[in-house]
Amino acid sequence: MTEKAKPKAKPKQPSTDEKVAKKKTVAKPKSATKSASSFGFLKALTRMLIIVFIVGASSASWLFWQEWQLQTQAVDSNRSTIASLQSSVKVAKNQSQAAIEQQQQQKKIVAVYNNQLQNIELRVNAQGKRLVELGSTTRSDWLLAEAEYLARLARQRLQTERSVKSPLALLESVDLILTQIDDPNLLAARTAVAEDITKLRLANDIDREGMYLELQALAANIEALDLVELAEPEIIEQKPVVTNHRQMSVLDEFLSDLSGLIRVRQRQQPIEPMLHQEEERIVRRNMQMIFEQAQIALLREEQKIYQATLQKAQNYLLRFFQSNPASEAVSQRLAVLLDTGIIQQLPDIYRSLDAIQSLLIMREQRLLESETPDQLESGQ
Question: Is the dihedral of CA 61, 64, 70, 74 positive or negative?
């Protein structure tokens, strides 16, 4: 309350110096006033330009920031779009690859079906052709087919059996069949068959079966041959000489009988010592194995091995077996077999089969040329 009640202080009166300064200020020239006002205008303009620049820079920064945000969002969206597109492309690529593989499998299946279809068409055509042939087959066609089969069989038998007997009989049957066919085109086929028959007849046929069986029989007879044995000397007791004529006659008779029991044989080979029972079995078994080797060489047509084996058998026979009629007979048969050739010379009988096949092809062509297309369709 006391403070509010205090009286207000009187305003201070300006001094004389201040009044003089004010007067001087008032008394300035108009040119200085004008320069001060222009300076203030420039200062205000500068401030305004600075403010405008700051506002423009702020606006540009804000706009740049907004643009950067938009570009960042666009880049992010583009990245997501690219990722989705890449995944879509990858899925599409997998799908296309699977489709390509499926298409390749389908092509393979189609190719298999096409091959099967072609095979079926070929089979149908062959069956239709065969039906046409069967519909027009005559007795001569059947005879020619039989002759072709026999000629082929003769050629196979010649190579497998390596003997001319069976092929010769078969070709003779072929010639007999061809004589039953009334066809002037058979002259070339019959000529070829006759040439092959002549080749087989001129070929030396080796009786391989007979030689094999003979070697087997000789091997079986080895058990019946006698081995070499040393004869033990007989001890003759010496008796006193009796001058009686009667006793002398009895002694002469005894000596004559004894001389009839003793035989002297000459051997070119040295006498082997007496063999034991086990050694005898070994010798006989070796002899049988030698004959088996000869049989194997005979079947394989190995002439040198065959002859060497039989020569070895002869040496065994002379060395370990006694010289008697049985062993001499075996030795003679071994000598005969040793001089026999076992290599069969086989002629080539291809001409007869080729001639018959050519004749069949010619008849088939004539048959197909004579058939019309309507007849072929009706046959199918």
Answer: negative
CA distances for 231 relative to 120, 234, 242, 274, angstroms: 88, 9, 31, 9
The Cα 378–Cα 132 span in angstroms is 9
Helix (H) or strand (E) holding 133: helix 30-135
Cα distances from 115 to residues 108, 120, 122, 134, 380, in angstroms, run 10, 8, 10, 28, 21
Phi, psi (rounded to 5 degrees) for 127? -65, -40
d(Cα 79, Cα 354) in Å, to the nearest integer?
A: 82
Instruction: Count H helices and E strands in the chain, helices first.
Output: 13, 0
Residue in 346, 348, 347, 352 with CA at minimum distance from that of residue 151: 352
Contacts by 215-218, CB closer than 8 A, 24 or more apart:
215/291, 215/294, 215/295, 215/298, 215/337, 216/291, 216/295, 218/291, 218/330, 218/333, 218/334
Tokens of 330: 């075996």
Q: Which amino acid is at 97?
A: Q
Map out the domains of the chain as residue ranges: 136-205+346-379, 206-228+269-343
The type of residue at 185 is N
* pTM of the entire predicted model: 0.42
> How many CA atoms does the CB half-sphere of 65 hold within 13 Å?
6
Secondary structure of residue 36 in the 3-state scheme: helix
Place of tokens 């030795």: 331
Q: With beta carbons less than 8 A apart as the criterion, state whether 178 and 333 touch.
A: no
List pLDDT tens digits, range 89-106: 888 888 888 889 888 888
pLDDT in tens, 134-188: 555 677 888 888 899 999 999 888 888 877 888 889 999 999 998 888 778 888 8
What CATH architecture applies to the domain 136-205+346-379?
Answer: Up-down Bundle (1.20)
